[in-house]
Design brief:
It comes from Planomonospora sphaerica. This protein is of the alpha/beta class. It contains 16 helices and 11 strands.
């Protein structure tokens, strides 16, 4: 049998269900992997060893009694530090919140725990989740296991690195501006950004959530295999947790006429793709075409304006207080430098101010809906360039075109659409690449099916040992 830490969530659940391994053996294997690898990548910030072993023992006793157990019984999972896990600190990467222990699980954590998954650790993130590189004053920087010189991405960079190195087969992060998909590209893993309203954002008693994050950000799973994303997703979107945006929609929609049409987004309103990213997009398109999808090249509607409206909404409605405290009072020097460099770029990225951004959002949404009615899937780059060298995002000149390189990412957030990030790379590549498959709202199933086709053709490049 392969080392348990190399297996995915689905495979581990099958072995436990068949009685070939115990829940405790699975948890212990991953805890040993964390001990061996985490000192080199700093992806996991807190190990829930005592609680996870107790949960594993309880699950093993339940199985021995013949009790019904959930489909993820004994499967370890890690959780980003801005998502509540009962008894563990929800720090947001902030020193002042290092003791802010949650009294209850966030809804998706509670749902996965209810079907047997076991939290084993918390994962690193940049302060407030507001940087595309993972570093903070509380825990320090996470290292990309493919190359220590390059970013693991952010803000779910710790989650992506933990999954990529086999410390966890399954993680939960979130995505308000590519925070799942960009780390997936940087670390060579898969991630699902669900539709708005699909996965509850906060539990009862949670603090105020700014309107921009209610509208633009969602929780989603990270894994090495697409089928593990599907397994987690299907068990994390049932309860509302008091989230007024939650929509209890079936996870499987009606079948589409075949062949299913896919638009490959190659026209990015003037932004050029790095050859490595363009090559990954071409290989993914070929995989879909070979599997019977009807593939065409084109553009995404109103891509630049979607990016501008996203920026305006996030700028105007992205905080809970009228007055914003100075960044240097609560954040690390690295974050302060980043924001000083990026704020002028961010301001320019808003473009011409809309009279009513939500009215423009609705107009853009109608354009995308019309396009997706003709071509139900879009295949697009995530960021148009690979993982950047650590420190690049502190250079104002380097940051100047960042919003242009992320247009296809934030358009998906603006419109509340689902997207799956899937690697298209080889294990011996210097850096991984990935693409995203975008679908109509609440049609994660279509995105996952297409992503599985790409994965079958491209292979799975992780888990890896840090290089």
């Amino acid at each position: 049998m392969a080392e348990l830490w190399t297996l995915g969530a689905w495979e581990l659940a099958e072995l436990i269900r068949a009685g070939e391994v115990s829940c405790r053996e699975v948890i212990e294997a991953h805890l040993r992997r964390i001990d061996a690898v985490n000192p080199r990548v700093n992806a996991i910030t807190a190990t829930l060893e005592e609680d996870s072993l107790a949960a594993a023992d309880a699950a093993d006793r339940a199985r021995a009694r013949g009790d019904a157990v959930g489909p993820l019984c004994g499967v370890p999972m890690t959780v980003k530090e801005n998502i509540d896990v009962r008894g563990s600190a929800t720090t947001l990467g902030i020193v002042a919140l290092r003791e802010a222990a949650a009294t209850a699980d966030a809804p998706p954590v509670a749902e996965l725990r209810a079907v047997g998954a076991i939290p084993i650790g918390r994962t690193n993130m940049p302060e407030f989740g507001m940087r595309w590189h993972t570093d903070n004053a509380l825990h320090g920087a996470t290292v990309n296991p493919w190359s220590a010189a390059h970013t693991p991405g952010g803000s779910s960079g710790g989650e992506a690195a933990a999954v990529a190195t086999g410390m966890s087969p399954l993680g939960i992060g979130n995505d308000g501006a590519g925070s799942l998909r960009w780390p997936a590209q940087c670390c060579g893993v898969s991630a699902l950004k669900p539709s708005l309203g699909r996965v509850a954002q906060a539990g009862h008693g949670a603090g105020p959530v700014p309107f921009a994050f209610q509208l633009l950000a969602v929780h989603g799973p990270v894994a090495r295999r697409v089928r593990d994303l599907r397994l987690a997703f299907e068990h994390m979107c049932g309860r509302s947790g008091g989230d007024p945006w939650h929509a209890p929609v079936p996870v499987h929609g009606p079948p589409l006429p075949v062949p299913v049409r896919v638009r490959v987004v190659t026209d990015l309103d003037g932004t050029e793709m790095d050859p490595q990213v363009a090559g990954a997009l071409q290989r993914a398109a070929a995989a879909l075409a070979n599997a019977g999808y009807l593939v065409e090249e084109g553009r995404a509607p109103a891509l630049t304006r979607a990016s501008e409206i996203f920026t305006q909404i996030m700028s105007d409605h992205g905080r809970t207080h009228r007055e914003r405290p100075p960044a240097d009072a609560i954040a690390s020097p690295g974050f302060v430098r980043f924001w000083q460099a990026y704020e002028p770029v961010w301001t320019r990225a808003a473009g011409e101010r809309a009279f009513d951004p939500m009215m423009e959002r609705a107009s853009i949404a109608r354009l995308w809906s019309a396009q997706l009615s003709r071509t139900p899937l879009m295949l697009a780059p995530i960021r148009t360039r690979p993982a950047f060298r650590v420190g690049s995002d502190l250079d104002p000149r380097w940051l100047d075109d960042w919003p242009d390189t992320m247009r296809t990412v934030v358009a998906v957030n603006l419109l509340g659409l689902p997207a799956v990030a899937v690697p298209v790379t080889s294990a011996d590549a210097p850096l991984p690449q990935a693409v995203q498959i975008i679908g109509p709202r609440f049609r994660e199933d279509l995105c996952l099916e297409a992503a599985a086709v790409v994965e079958a053709a491209a292979g799975t490049p992780t888990p890896i040992d840090p290089r």
